[in-house]
Amino acid sequence: MVKQRIIEEASELFGRAGVKSTTMDDLSRHLGISKRTIYENFKDKEDLLVSCIAAFSENNKNNFDKLLLEADNVVEAILVVMQKSAEQAAQRQISMVTDIKKYYPQVFKVNLARISNDKHKNIRDLLERGIKEGVFRDDLNPEIVAYFFCQNERTNVFNDSILEKFPFTEVFENMVITFLRGVCTPKGIKIIDKYKENIH
Predict the structure, then answer these.
(1) What is each CA distance from 24 to 1, 16, 43, 95, 192, in whole angstroms?
(2) How many CA atoms lie within 13 A of 198 on its CB side?
(3) Is 200 helix (H, G, I), strand (E, B) or coil?
(4) Tens digits of per-residue pLDDT, 189-199?
(5) CA dihedral 63, 67, 69, 73 (to 10 degrees)
(6) Does the global pTM surpass 0.70?
(7) For residue 119, what are the CA distances in angstroms to 56, 57, 145, 150?
(8) Could you tell me what percent of the chain has a pLDDT over 90?
(9) Helices marked H in the chain — which ranges?
(10) Could you give the C-alpha distances from 81 to 84, 118, 162, in angstroms and in order?
(11) Taking the mean position of all CA atoms in its chain, how far away is CA 83?
């Protein structure tokens, strides 16, 4: 399907070169199709960008749901998601988010805020499940903890100054491992320690 291919290739170019630097001419040459074909499917670059964000969000959700089904417990699921996210995100996606925030503030406000709200709900649901599984402390308030995790992620993971000093993967791993150890029971901490032994 042409529209889906345009979304996939545009997402790749936006991530690699940045949203502002990627023109419709660039995309047309990269795809080997006319600009007219692109404009028959998307009103303008902003419309295409919104579609790319929606596709990214849907893909993340599907992968997340699949990992949850395959994992033995919530802690393992979060650790696997963390590892895969760190591998896939890298610095170029941070730059893409920065570009959207700077040059397409309304797109950032509406679409990335929605993704953030979805993430908050996912983390809250994971915390509730983890409490039932006995890997998270039962004195937690999942709503509050999920809120602070999301705030911390936005402040630190997408912070240019910290990313200039340390690799994205290291920042992300340290933040999530520290967060998890704080909410885990001794049973959950054993799962974290075993995971760290296997990846180092």
Answers:
(1) 19, 15, 11, 19, 45
(2) 10
(3) coil
(4) 999 998 888 76
(5) -150
(6) yes
(7) 13, 10, 13, 8
(8) 44
(9) 2-17, 24-31, 35-41, 45-70, 74-103, 105-107, 113-133, 142-156, 160-165, 168-183, 186-199
(10) 5, 15, 22
(11) 11
Please say whether the beta carbons of 175 and 161 come within 8 A: no
Pick the CATH number of 58-199 from 3.30.470.10, 3.40.1190.10, 3.40.710.10, 1.10.357.10: 1.10.357.10
Question: What was the pLDDT predicted at 192?
Answer: 93
What does the pLDDT read at residue 155?
53
Q: By the 8 A CB rule, do 169 and 85 touch?
A: no
Indicate the domain borders of the chain.
58-199
Tokens of 194: 């075993």
* Termini Cα distance of the chain: 42
Residues in CB range of 129: below 8 A, 6 or more apart:
74
pLDDT of residue 101: 84
Q: Is residue 184 helix, strand or coil? A: strand
